[in-house]
Design brief:
Length: about 325
């Protein structure tokens, strides 16, 4: 059977048997297409260790038309897709390279970029006023910091997802795993005020402005130092996109005078760092973030361990005093 057909079968397997998200399936399709396009082979038996080694070199030296290379993590995503594809082939008794022959590249230690207390306060206070858009943006920022949601998780929320009375709700995260997140008083109040001013009946929790520009035209609206692009909006397409949320966060960071790049994921980092700095145990933070493995959560510990600081201050360089 040709590899292209096997790839198609595998992607359908991910969708039906594994219940993977469409984004995951699209990513696997992209990674496998790149490999097959590079390898120029039709038969799975042609995949061998020397070929994988050459492909790893190709990924490591890859550069697009703008000269941008692939991050080590992205290179590993390509290899993970191939490895899982080979596992699928083995289960179907298709002769090919054993999946365990593919080793992932060693990852450099991750640097966690988060907002310090004063930066965070300035960002959360940046949406000023009581317009619908300002109330929405304030609710989004408070919700990010209160829950540690991923960008895609927040963008996919519906009105009936959030229980404002209980101050908690469940969210479906990576790997289709469901976890409980909690609302701070500030986040609950911000979401309440935003929803109270909404005039539409769209199911999405966060929606785009329904201001209509002339047909096929766009215009720009200035709110303080933030510029919003207003496009023609169909009444059936109001949900705020992840990209729009990213731009919004970036705009308010600039308004708050924060010079470094600020993203929704930094607010997730800030959420985790704040919990650990204030004494939360790492297993609880793992659950709140929705991490499958504790090692993923442990990236925060080196910047939050008050105990190590206290030990250093208590015992270091005593002979110099």
């Amino acid at each position: 059977m040709q590899l292209e057909k096997l790839k198609k079968d595998y992607l359908e397997h991910l969708e039906i048997e594994k219940n993977r998200s469409q984004l995951t399936i699209q990513n696997y399709d992209h990674y496998l297409l790149r490999f097959l396009g590079w390898a120029k082979i039709d038969n799975a038996s042609a995949i061998n260790e020397p070929m994988i080694r050459e492909y790893r070199l190709y990924l490591n030296r890859f550069g697009d038309k703008f000269g941008r290379s692939l991050k080590k993590q992205t290179q590993n995503y390509h290899l993970i897709a191939i490895r899982n594809f080979l596992k699928y082939l083995a289960k179907r008794d298709v002769k090919s390279l054993a999946a365990e022959k593919i080793e992932l590249g060693k990852m450099p230690s991750r640097e966690i970029d988060f907002l310090e207390g004063d930066e965070l306060e300035r960002l959360l206070k940046a949406p000023s006023g009581d317009s619908l858009q300002t109330l929405r943006d304030r609710a989004i920022l408070e919700l990010f910091f209160s829950t540690g949601l991923r960008l895609s998780e927040l963008a996919n929320l519906n009105r009936d997802s959030v229980n404002l009375n209980k101050g908690e709700f469940s969210v479906r995260g990576k790997g289709d795993k469901i976890r409980i997140v909690f609302l701070s008083d500030a986040a609950r109040d911000a979401v309440k005020k935003y929803l109270a001013k909404r005039g539409d009946i769209d199911e999405a929790l966060f929606v785009r402005p329904t201001i209509r520009a002339p047909a096929a035209a766009t215009s720009k609206k200035h709110t303080g130092s933030i510029v919003y692009t207003i496009e023609p909006v169909r009444q059936t397409d109001l949900r705020l996109t992840p990209r729009s949320i990213e731009r919004m966060v970036k705009g308010y960071a600039a308004k708050a005078g924060i010079s470094k790049k600020v993203t929704p994921h930094q607010l997730r980092h800030s959420f985790a760092t704040d919990l650990l700095r204030n004494g939360a145990d790492i297993r609880s933070v793992q659950a709140l973030l929705g991490h499958s493995h504790i090692t993923t959560t442990q990236i925060y510990t080196h910047i939050t361990d008050k105990g190590l600081r206290e030990i250093h201050q208590k015992f270091h360089a005593k002979s110099r005093k």
